[in-house]
Amino acid sequence: NGQNLDGWKFQLPEGTDPSTVWSVKDGVLRCEGRPIGYLYTEQEFTDFELTLEWRFDPAAGPGNSGVLLRKSGSDRIWPRSIEAQLQHRNAGDFWNIGEVPMRTDPARTRGRNTRRAAPSSEKPVGEWNRYDILVDGPRVELRVNGVLQNAADWCEELAGPICLQSEGAVIEFCDIRLRRIVKR
User: Fold this and answer.
1) pLDDT exceeding 70 applies to what percent of the chain?
2) What is the distance of C-alpha 36 from the center of its chain?
3) What's the CA gap between 184 and 165, in Å, rounded?
4) Are the CB atoms for 155 and 80 separated by under 8 Å?
5) CA 34, 37, 43: angle at the middle one, nearest 5?
6) Sheet-wide strand order for 113-114
């Protein structure tokens, strides 16, 4: 909501105060990057359009993070999900965590990773980037700053939380917008 962390839960090492990792100020959700873990929505979603902006703190330098889609199973590092990668210069990659059924381009897939389709469309460190993520039935699409970087079909269709990773880098998120896709 741009003001606090209402609507989110945390998966962090036992004894970690979430406020030392995640905070909200002036409409910006900030992650300090350590310890590793994630925050996730209290609600579960199956079909949706998710748009968010992110940037790495230029003083801390670029790093790694991601958006986990259709999380299922137990809370652990890292939970079964489809990861929309945010690692610097690799935004738009897929990581398949926990053998989620999905079909990606075999020419760009090695093991659990499917590389983005086009050259990096990220802006320089410190500038805001936009991620447009479509999760609609068996289809998942990732657009970075308007460029379709990846698509997958035959994805497992199930409801699950959406997660933002704390993965070692200071990263900020803003203008997070979610629209459910209602099937008739």
Assistant:
1) 100
2) 14
3) 33
4) no
5) 135
6) 8-11, 37-41, 163-166, 66-72, 80-85, 94-97, 113-114, 109-110
Identify which of 5, 2, 7, 1 has the alpha carbon closest to the alpha carbon of residue 17.
5
- Residue pLDDT, tens place only, 80-108: 999 999 999 999 999 999 999 999 999 99
Q: What angle (nearest 5°) sits at the alpha carbon of residue 131, between those of residues 125 and 132?
A: 165
Cα angle 42, 102, 130 (rounded to 5 degrees) comes to 55
Q: Taking a C-beta distance cutoff of 8 angstroms, is the pair 108, 146 a contact?
A: no
- Residue 108 backbone phi and psi in degrees, to 5: -110, 5
Distance CA 166, CA 80 (A): 16
Between CA 133 and CA 69 the distance in angstroms is 9
Asked if residues 42 and 9 have their Cβ atoms less than 8 Å apart, the reply is yes
How far apart, in whole angstroms, are the C-alpha atoms of residue 176 and residue 157? 23
- Give the residue-averaged pLDDT of 15-26: 95
Distances in Å between the Cα of 100 and the Cα atoms of 30, 94, 155 are 29, 12, 7
Find, among 144, 123, 141, 124, the residue nearest to 133 by Cα: 141
